[in-house]
Amino acid sequence: MKLATYRLPGDGGVRHGRITDAATVTDLGPGDLSAVLGAPDALPEPSGEHPLAEVTLLAPLLRPGKVLAVAANYQEHVEETGGDRLDKSRISPRLFLKPATAVSGPGEEIAIPSVSPQVDWEAELVAVIGRGGKDIPLDSALEHVGGYTIGNDVSGRKMDYGHERDTGDPMVGFFDWLNGKWPDGFAAMGPYLTTADEVPDPQKLDVTMEVNGRVRQQGDTGQMIFSVAELVAFASRLMTLEPGDVLYTGTPAGVGLASGEFLSAGDEMTVRVTGLGSLVNRVR
Ligand code: MN
C-alpha cells in the first residue's frame, strides 16, 4: 500500500493517510507517517477521505530521528568521481548522517546555499525503518524495513566560507564533502511511502534522474555494492535503529560532479524508482 504525509488546504494541518486510488487519500490521523510506521498492518480506522488533488504531499517523515546515507555504494559512481575500483571484501559501508532539517518533500523548492555554490543531484532508493533494532542479523534485516520511498541526496560539491583556506590537510576535503550534505532541503524524499510488502526485492529497481527533462542518471539497485539488507544490518551494529529512521542507499553514476555541470536556479530534478512514483524538486 501507499502511505502519505500531506497538508490539508488552508490551515487544515499535517495529516497522514493511505492513497487508496489515483485520486483519493484516506485520512488516518494527524502528523506524519511516524504514527503508523511501526505497525502498518494495524492501521487506525479511517477518519475521512480527501481528493488527492486538494492536498499537498509532504515528505513521508518530516523530521526523522536519523537520516542515514551511504557514500560510494555504486562502483560506476565511485569511478566517475575519480575513485578506484572497490574490493567489497576489504571495505565497510561508508555511512554518514544528514541533519533532519535537510528533509524536503515532493514539489518543494531547494535553495542553493550561500556556503555551497556547486550543487549536485543524487537519485537514490530510500529505505524507511519500520521495526527498530540493534545488531540486526543480515538474514532478517529486510524485515526491519517498513517501506521505501524515493530520495535525492542533494550535495554541495564545494564549500565557500568567504575566505581563503589551507587545503593541504586531507581532513579539509573530508569535512567539506560532509558539510556539503547538510544544507536545508538537501534530503529530498517522497512523494509517498510504498510499504515493503509491495517491494519484494529492493535490489531489482530502476533508478533514474532527469534534470530539465534530460536523463542524467540511469542505474538499477542491483548495482549496489552493499545491498539494503547489508546496509541495515551494518548500520544497526553502529547504532540502534528506530521506526521512522530513513536510509539513503547511494547513487548510481551520472552526477553533475563527473561532468562539471551543476544546478542553477530554475532547474527541475525528477527522480524515478520502479513502483515508487516520481519525486520532483525545483532549484531556487
Ligand atoms: Mn548519496
Structural class: mainly beta
What summary fits the major beta sheet? 12 strands, mixed
Q: What are the bound molecules?
A: manganese (II) ion
Stretches with pLDDT under 50, minimum 5 residues? none
Beta-strand residue fraction: 25-35%
| Beginning-to-end CA distance, first to last residue | 33 Å
- Which overall shape is indicated by the principal axes computed on the Cα atoms? globular
Radius of gyration: 18 Å
Mean pLDDT: 96
Number of strands: 18
Q: Superfamily at the CATH H level of the largest domain?
A: Fumarylacetoacetase-like, C-terminal domain
**H/E topology pattern:** EEEHEEEHEEEEEEHEEEHEHEE
Proportion of helical residues? 10-25%
Structure description:
It is globular and about 60 Å long. It has 2 domains: 2-57; 67-283, Fumarylacetoacetate hydrolase, domain 2, CATH 3.90.850.10. 44% of the residues are buried. Helix content is 12%, strand content 34%. The protein has helices at 34-37, 75-80, 170-179, 228-238, 256-259; strands at residues 2-7, 14-21, 24-30, 49-51, 56-58, 67-71, 94-98, 103-104, 119-120, 123-129, 145-153, 155-156, 187-195, 206-211, 214-220, 246-248, 268-273, 277-282. It contains 5 helices and 18 strands. Bound molecules: manganese (II) ion. Manganese (II) ion (MN) binds at residues 69, 122, 124, 153, 248, 250-251.
